Automatic annotation (TrEMBL):
Residues 147-174 form a coiled coil. It comes from Populus trichocarpa. Keywords: Coiled coil, DNA-binding, Nucleus, Transcription, Transcription regulation. Pfam families: K-box, SRF-TF. The lineage of its organism: Eukaryota, Viridiplantae, Streptophyta, Embryophyta, Tracheophyta. This is Uncharacterized protein. It comes from the Eukaryota. InterPro entries: MADS-box/MEF2_TF (IPR050142), MEF2-like_N (IPR033896), TF_Kbox (IPR002487), TF_MADSbox (IPR002100), TF_MADSbox_sf (IPR036879). GO terms for cellular component: nucleus.
Length: 191
């Protein structure tokens, strides 16, 4: 039975796409290994899946860095410096975000309020009031749940207490446990 040609386009079903990726990845790794063995080639293969998992294959006695360095030398480009610049830009952006978040945290703690305008102070006050309402509502729910749990425990204790009182009264009436209401007394007399 011959296989039909498949149309090369993105597979919409995520499960099918992941299965196909896994099978074809293994096929590519097998081909890379075959190239290494048959042609004595240095092969380095890096793949990143749609779930951001990194898979790599490097031929024995080969380092990925050496292959990248050789690639850069052949092409006349510097991958590491451009990558470094991108990482440096990302670091600066993250530092700005971090400083902004820290400033907002200090303002919510009542510090660093001097530079804020009246509208900023009103906005901060509004945010604090809504946060207080959320906290207050949560505290009320927790307290209500604790009260309900305590009431249930108290009802259980009351039921156990009533049951023990009934048993104690029964013991007072028949301290030796000989009276059995509804039992067969003739069979007991035979013993």
């Amino acid at each position: 039975m011959a296989r039909g040609k498949i149309q090369i386009k993105k597979i919409e079903n995520s499960t099918n796409r992941q299965v196909t990726y896994s099978k074809r990845r293994n096929g590519l790794f097998k081909k890379a290994h075959e190239l290494t063995v048959l042609c004595d080639a240095e092969v380095s293969l890096v793949m990143v899946s749609c779930t951001d998992k990194v898979h790599d294959y490097t031929s024995p006695s080969t380092t990925t860095k050496r292959i990248f360095d050789q690639y850069q030398q052949t092409k006349g480009i510097d991958l590491w410096s451009s990558h470094y610049e991108i990482m440096k830009e990302n670091l600066e952006k993250l530092k700005e975000v971090n400083m902004k978040i820290r400033r907002e945290m200090r303002q919510r703690m009542g510090q660093c309020l001097n530079g804020l305008s009246f509208q900023d102070l009103q906005s901060l006050e509004s945010d604090m009031e809504s946060a207080w309402r959320v906290i207050h509502d949560r505290a009320d729910r927790v307290l209500t749940n604790q009260i309900e749990t305590s009431k249930k425990k108290a009802r259980n204790v009351e039921q156990i207490n009533r049951k023990l009182q009934v048993e104690l009264e029964a013991m007072d009436q028949d301290p030796y446990g000989l009276v059995d209401n509804g039992g067969d007394y003739n069979s007991v007399m035979g013993f």
